[in-house]
Amino acid sequence: MTTRTIAVVSAGLSQPSSTRMLADKLADATVSKLAAQDVEAIVETFELRDVATDITNHLLTGFPSPRLEAVIDAVTGADGLIAVSPIFTTSYSGLFKSFFDVVGSDTLVDLPVVIGATAGTPRHSLALDYALRPMFTYLHAVVAPTGVFAATGDWGDSADSVKTLPNRIDRAARELAALVAASDRSSTVRDPFALERPFGHLIGGLAGE
Amino acid sequence: MQFGIFTVSDITQDPTTGRTPTENERIKATLAIAKHAEEVGLDVFALGEHHNPPFWSSSPTTTLAYIAAQTSTLQLSTATTLITTNDPVKIAEDFAMLQHVADGRVDLMLGRGNTGPVYPWFGKDIRQGINLALENYGLLHRLWREDFVDWEGQFRTPLQGFQSTPRPLDDVPPFVWHGSIRSPEIAEQAAYYGDGFFANHIFWPASHTQRMIALYRQRFEHYEHGTAEQAIVGLGGQVFMRRNSQDAVREFRPYFDNAPVYGHGPSLEEFTSQTPLTVGSPQEVIDKTLGFRDYVGDYQRQLFLMDHAGLPLKTVLEQLDLLGEEVVPVLRREFAKDRPATVPDAPTHASLVARRASDQQSARRASDQQSARRASDQQSAARNAAASVAAAAPKGAAFGAAAVKGA
Known about the structure:
The complex is a heterodimer of chains A (209) and B (407). Chain A is of the alpha/beta class and 209 residues long. Chain A contains seven helices and seven strands. In chain A, strands 1, 2, 3, 4, 5, 6 and 7 form a seven-stranded mixed beta sheet that branches. In chain A, helix 1 crosses helix 6. Chain B has 407 residues and is α/β, with parallel strands linked by helices. Chain B folds into two domains: 2-345, Alpha-Beta Barrel (TIM Barrel); 353-406. The longest helix of chain B is centred in the last third of the chain and has 36 residues, at 349-384. At the A-B interface, helix 2 and helix 7 of A face helix 5, helix 6, helix 7 and helix 9 of B.
């Protein structure tokens, strides 16, 4: 049985939060899909609220606290990412964006991602595709075609009864599981101290040799 | 081991009085600080370079030349000189000039600079930062070592038969440190040339500095400049002291909380636990500084940032008194303990002049030996020619190769 790691990032602020609920459901569904393909998934879930001050401090000082560094290492070294934000003022929350601002612009390359969002009404659902998706595309992550949006009503009787929330979660989880099963990302070593090109080549190239 | 101070030349409001010094006050204060550094027995004063307010130090060699005239033993350095946006020709000229007026009490630390607009202001592209640092230093290195330089590169106009003047004092270029916080290419560059590497780890956790220094040491050995433990390492540090630890914390906290670089972020307590910043008694500073050796090995230069964030001149001079009288003498003694004899001191002009003389002597000796061997090989080859021509030739070739390598 092969093993893959899935990082879950939830930017929900309240306790309990519907953002975290959606993130957990996406994670559970992805684990099931992977198990069906004989892949064991190890899930690590992070609430950005727990490192909110550390994120701000990183923005100001340029380096992470040990606690935030552990979260960043887990997210950037995973085989797959489930990223869920509440929609505030027509976009992802500032905390969600600030976290990905300090993660580093080249650390999520090729990372399979499924995006999710929550809000009070379904009228914000496009924020997934005009805010979250372009951000991960910019970071060269591989974003699954299906994003899952859960309005408050989706948790009760005013839910979409044709394409239900469980249906949407199932579809997104299937897409993520396929990407994660094929990914060997966590086994490739990314050493921040490694040179991209041999130094002699760097100098030689510049000297026109 | 050398101990000293470095300044970034910030003009910052004193948060306890609300008063911001004028440029002239701050410049004169820095000159007083540099002179006092020598008076209290420190070895090095290093000055930053910036091209935008609230910093004043745009012309470090002018400032350092004045300080040179006012001091007699202080080693003058920079922290850092911008190798990316300055013309390497002008760096070669300015620092050779400074060497002459300062009688050799000069080295410099090269850095890329992290103020985005400085690059376009000087016609450069920040995305080429590493490449600029590599190409510009390659030229600077030659300008100080070759009388006439033909050169062509990507970033500056070509040179044909160019001679940079004045020539370095005694034909020995100033020692160069390469400073970087997070770029392995710069550690590699320092190792490649056998230059020093300075990790300003004041805003960066020890674990990161440890890996950068380890990389530099390993590559220094790889390029055959000596063993890893002989690589030339410098570290930054940042301290605020009072005899009583609580007094230091109380007095420094408003400066920390409002400092331009880390103010309004982590608490003083978080920052001191995560970085080399020490706020406390001289003994606490001694203990923390001695701990640096545990993760970088025996090193050559320790510089402290003492005069930033709006601290008034009087306070800074008192800090230097504590540093010079109570901290550095103990650090000198303790760092000397268990230090292998093979670990060199930081290079100075005198040591570089001596090394050049000994290199020239051993080159002469090697070349004499080579000629002698050639002569002896020829004799023995002639003697043995009849018996075994094949036996003499490989022997001669092997000696020849060894002599060339030794040179």
